[in-house]
Design goal:
Largest sheet: 6 strands, parallel
CATH topology of the domain at 3-77 and 130-236: inorganic pyrophosphatase (n-terminal core)
Structural class: alpha/beta
Helix content: 10-25%
Order of helices and strands: HEHEEEEEEEEEHHHHH
Strand order of the largest sheet: 3-2-1-8-9-10
CATH superfamily of the domain at 3-77 and 130-236: inorganic pyrophosphatase (n-terminal core)
Number of helices: 7
CATH architecture of the domain at 3-77 and 130-236: Alpha-Beta Complex
Radius of gyration: 53 Å
Strand content: 15-25%
CATH class of the domain at 3-77 and 130-236: Alpha Beta
Shape: elongated
């Protein structure tokens, strides 16, 4: 944004005192945060300020400072006082007034038919005085303001158009519109600092909330460098970045197409394990089985001499009956054997 636009806004503000701020129907946190930031800043300069939106603000903008001062009518309530009552031809002869101390009395003199209305039928309404300068924040078209913008009432009002939408129609006497703004709040913060208006904690908090909401807590790739620059200045003025409500991603949070285990090249085999088998655990207090000690069996054999063994039949040694062949072992049965054959084949 060029310095010429800021100079025109600053010059116009120096001429007028009755200033208003208007936002479109159902404003976002960014739009309302920017509008309230500008409203509070200009009010601190001593301007007679008013701020309005076509409908009652939504709950999502209720955390902004000054939201209770937003109305649904535009302009300062300093216009004409209108007294209304039912009337039929011939009931009123004339209307006059008298002064009594600090009061002005309006006298309605009855005609021949008399007055046919009661005190409860009398209505009072206060007209609104059109602002001398009007800031329209975040409205791409005049029609977005609904009944707030009446061309006949605002014909002499200087209109300042502040927006970042690419489809903005470029209306107004001073146009401060650029789609390079990632948020309207950063544009308003830059405006306040450039014209030398006040930037207190409440204003900084509103603008910071607007910037972080519009930029998804600075995660939007379209976040401009001006947003980071203004955020740093707002933080130096006491504003805090709101805590992110989104949980950090973990591998379990990733979709299947982003996080999946590699599949083997060979086909999977299926196994039929059958129904599960339940194993009953043994009670821990079961007594262990007694361990049986092994006692080797010793066989007592009578001591025999070599000569006795030679004369003992085989059947007596093996427990079999003798076959008649080789009933007695040879004499050299118990002596070492020496090979006596030949190695020639």
């Amino acid at each position: 944004m060029d310095n010429l636009t800021f100079d025109k806004i600053k010059e116009t503000l120096s001429k007028y005192n009755n200033v208003a701020v208007a936002v479109p129907i159902d404003p976002t946190v960014d739009e309302m945060g920017a509008a309230l930031g500008l409203y509070l800043s200009l009010k601190d300069m001593g301007k007679a300020m008013s701020i309005a939106t076509p409908n009652t603000p939504l709950v999502e903008v209720s955390a902004l400072v000054g939201i209770d001062e937003v109305r649904t009518t535009l302009g300062e309530e300093s216009g004409d006082l209108v007294v209304s009552f039912p009337y039929r031809e011939g009931e009123i002869e004339k209307v006059s007034y008298t002064r009594d101390d600090n009061y002005l009395n309006i006298v309605v003199k009855a005609g021949e038919k008399g007055l046919n209305f009661t005190q409860q039928d009398v209505r009072f309404s206060r007209g609104s005085k059109a602002p001398e300068m009007l800031f329209i924040v975040g409205a791409a078209r005049i029609s977005d303001l609904g009944k707030l913008f009446d061309p006949a009432v605002l014909k002499d009002t200087v209109v300042v158009n502040i927006d970042n939408k690419p489809d903005n129609q470029g209306y107004g006497d001073i146009v401060m519109v650029s789609n390079r703004f990632s948020s309207i709040s950063e544009a308003i913060a830059n405006l306040i600092l450039t014209i030398g208006a006040k930037m207190d904690l409440d204003i900084a908090e509103n603008l910071m909330l607007g910037i972080t909401t519009a930029t998804n807590n600075f995660q939007d790739p379209k976040t401009s460098s001006l947003a980071f620059e203004m955020a740093g200045i707002l933080m130096r003025n006491g504003a805090l970045r709101p805590a992110s409500s989104q949980p950090k991603n973990t591998p379990l949070d990733f979709p299947d197409e982003q996080f999946s285990m590699p599949q083997p090249a060979f086909p999977k085999k299926t196994f039929n394990a059958g129904p599960p088998r339940l194993v009953q655990p043994k009670p821990f207090n079961q007594q262990p089985r007694p361990v049986q000690s092994f006692q080797p069996k010793v066989v007592q054999r009578p001591q025999q001499t070599r000569e006795q063994l030679k004369q003992t039949p085989i059947s007596a040694v093996e427990g079999k009956e003798a076959t008649g062949v080789g009933e007695n072992p040879p004499d050299d049965w118990l002596t070492p054997k020496i090979y006596k054959g030949s190695t020639n084949f």
